[in-house]
Amino acid sequence: QALSICQSKIEKHGVRRMRLVATEACRRARNARDFIRQVRRETGMDLEVIAPEVEARLAVISCAPLVSKRTEQLLVVDIGGGSTELVWIDLSQVAPEDRPRAIMRLHAGFAPHGDAPAARVVDWISVPLGVATLKDQFTDVQDDTARFALMSWYFEEKLASFSPYNSENARAGFQIIGTSGTVTTIAASFLGLRRYDRAKVDGLHMSSDQIDTVIHEYLSLGPEGRRSDPRIGRDRHSLIMSGAAILQALLRIWPTDRLSVADRGLREGLLYAQMSADGVLDDGPYQ
Fold it and tell me: With contact defined as beta carbons under 8 Å apart, do 54 and 102 qualify?
């Protein structure tokens, strides 16, 4: 039904150029091919199941406008429903004024292109744990605090193969950009917003300590308190703690004074990539 509504809007606006993608849920579903055929038959829409690297790359370029000129080491985090993508990028060889543009140039791929100084992808990983799939791992744990701690440490265990996990990293010149409903919800809670306002959330800078304070407040509220908290919302209360557990694990490993909140993601990444490929944009960055 939701896809039929999307198709109606596409027809209403006369859209001719489009890219329709599916991510982790379809990557792991055993009946993914049947689902895609059914969608095509009922709506005429051709879904493309994208690889984890493509999903990670789209998340990265969507955040190009938020990259600081002072950033030398960048970690982009996209916490989804079924997976979490991490991309570590070295910008130290790129001129400060060109760093946001260097991120946009990654739309062509993570492998280096040409001899000019460029953003270097140190490593990337797609962890098959998102807010829904991580939550499902610990449904048998009744204690709220214990369940949260288990989720956080369980997620960290999955990062052993991510090379920056075992490397020292200075806080100076380091930036994390977080793009997900988890990060934007925590930001809205930090700001005390009873009604979500994208203009106030997108681009907000938070420190590890500020995020940790919000997470501890969520824990003190308990399940019932979170359900009725207007800053979280009834559509997100059941998943916010698994997302917060992922975020806490990352900040435990890589504490930062500058986590940039991104209310943007695959849609913006798809748009930027298509416009760049069509020559409409000159490799960003764009607000």
Answer: no
pTM: 0.87
Q: What is the dihedral of CA 195, 191, 180, 276, to 10 degrees?
A: 90
Residue 168 vs residue 187, higher pLDDT:
187
Cα–Cα distance, 15 to 193 (Å, whole number)? 35
Q: The domain that contains 227 carries what CATH number?
A: 3.30.420.150
Please determine, for residue 284, whether its predicted confidence score (pLDDT) is greater than 60. Answer: no
How long is the chain? 287
Of 253, 265, 214, whose CA–CA distance to 64 is shortest?
265
User: How many distinct structural domains can be found in the chain?
Assistant: 2
CB atoms within 10 A of CB 67: 25
Q: Are residues 8 and 102 in the same domain?
A: no
Please state, in angstroms and rounded to a whole number, the distance separating the CA atoms of residues 63 and 136: 29
